[in-house]
Amino acid sequence: MICDFYYSISLVTKFEIMLKQKINSQEAAAIKKYFDSCKNVVVTAHTSPDGDAIGSCLGLYEYLKRKGKNVTVIVPNYFPDFLHWMKDADKVVLFERQKTLSYNIINMADLICCLDFNEMSRIDELALPISKAKAKKILIDHHLNPNKSPFDFVISRPEASSTCELVFRVLDAIGGVDQLTFAGAEDLYAGMFTDTGGFSFNSNEPDVFVIISELLRKGIDKDLINRRINNNFSPDRLRLVGYVLYEKLQVFPDLHASFFTMTKEELAQFNYLKGDMEGIVNMPLQIKGHKLSISLREDTEKPVIRVSARSVDDLPCNEICAQFFNGGGHKNASGGTLECSMEEAIEITKKAFEAWREELIK
Ligand code: 5GP
Ligand code: MN
Q: Between 336 and which of 66, 120, 242, 325 could a Cys-Cys bridge form, CB atoms 3.0 to 4.6 Å apart?
């Protein structure tokens, strides 16, 4: 065969795929000492635990168990059904349902690992036994402005995609990735996936994908995990989404903002289970140019309104939540609580929109 042109390519491809160390050697040495010397460990995370909370707890649990430790995950309350596929999710102790057992386990512990929260108030009543416990307490978290005083040791990285990312980094820094089990890899992937909206925000750091490639090497099936998390709706939950978007969403087109309310009675119409509202607050951001979405939902147990806020780019919804909704959180995903009627909550939301008008109309 005659070729009338030739390729002469000297292609030298060099991939340097390495995780940048964000846990320094002193931190790694301190954590290693805690993990090596402990016997009875409690791992805990914030109230109404989400994928990152449960994923980081069970991921660390897998590692510590593999090291022969006696480990119990205790969380303040119920976590949603779409996380129950994780190995040993059924062994997680719910403090609100098993207080005596929780107290006993916490009193026996010599190490308490607190994950994915930045202050004791985020674990509600579980703060009391944990604060009083004689065990050493470490915090691994990615929320802004942690209150470090209740802890013996803190790893706080607000820039991290998720606490699961940080747990992986800690294991990497102490040479523990080999002892991370398949189930632990699934757990950590799930938390990174959920806390970044399926890698659609807070996940531009190339290291996120270096970590995922390591988790894939453990044999996880990320597509299956994505389906377990996302395609797990009841028919009621799907209709609830339809109802919120069709009947309840109030859009302020000039402000690129919207809010919706849901009362207990409305939730009951859809046989509401905790977790059913999860993610709906993200949906209005699919509107072209939208910047801010707020959900006002009556709590089914306490006489309060739970506020969830989502924003894009530089709009800091955590500041909005701090100013108007007694809350805070991440720049683009935050929340808070109001103790007032729904009518008053709507007025407060409208005031918040007005106060941030300049930023919203840009
Ligand atoms: P969600 O809208 O999913 O309930 O909460 C999103 C994020 O907002 C959470 O990860 C947490 O960081 C933050 N957040 C939610 N509720 C509160 C609150 O009452 N106080 C503070 N400081 N942060 C909150
Ligand atoms: Mn998180």
A: 325
